[in-house]
Amino acid sequence: MPVVDSRKIALNAYRVMAYITGIGLVVLVCYAMPMKYIWGDSRPVAVVGAAHGFFYMAYVVCTLVLAERCRWRPVRAVLVALAGTIPFISFVAERKVTKLVKAMGPRGGSAAAGDRAGRGAAGGAERAADQQTDLNA
């Protein structure tokens, strides 16, 4: 069974939410707000604004999960989370965060942990047999 890197999973979720949040904010600022304040149609703001708010909350959760997995200081986590509130900055932050996390390398990386994880079901059967032998003795 392959070793699962929780940082990679958290990074992928963060990246998806950063793009969705960024696109939602750009649509809100560049389309919905002009529709409301120039042409008087507030419907796009209601729809796009609500969607952006929902996706922004998911973005914040993904940011906090990634921050926990990478052991970031709280200031970095807050700054990355705030990047979803400024148009186009979430795209810049996503690139920087991706480079930072990839430079950290995989989590855990010890040979013993990789050896245990690499055995899969066979390793589990061996451990069960060892435990059964101990119980019979």
From TrEMBL:
Transmembrane segments annotated in the record for this chain: 12-33, 45-67, 73-93
Segments forming domain DUF3817: 11-99
Topology relative to the membrane: Multi-pass membrane protein
Compartments in which it is found: Cell membrane
Keywords on record: Cell membrane, Membrane, Transmembrane, Transmembrane helix
Pfam families: DUF3817
Region (Disordered): 104-137
Entries under InterPro entries matching the protein: DUF3817_TM
The organism's place on the tree of life at top rank: Bacteria
Main location: membrane
Name of the featured protein: DUF3817 domain-containing protein
